[in-house]
Design a protein that fits this description.
By secondary structure, this protein is an all-alpha fold. It has a domain of about 30 residues. It is built from one helix and no strands. It is extended and about 40 Å long. This is XdhC Rossmann domain-containing protein. InterPro entries: MoCofactor_Util/Proc, XdhC_Rossmann_dom.
Amino acid sequence: MTRRRGDTTASPSTSDGGAVPLARLASPIGLDLGARTPEETAVAIMAEIIAQQWGSTGRRLTDTTPLPIHH
């Protein structure tokens, strides 16, 4: 079955083929790092993904109370 011309919507999916709940998707994505190149944008996106994965805020370490970096 083919899509109709102009129908570009697609359901997001995981690597194992499962559907991603739309509530988990955010736009725009990435931390505000002031990225100017595609490579810097990729770093900003990965930084947000890592922060979300580990429940971090993405704040500067110098702006937080002293805690060990590695637990």
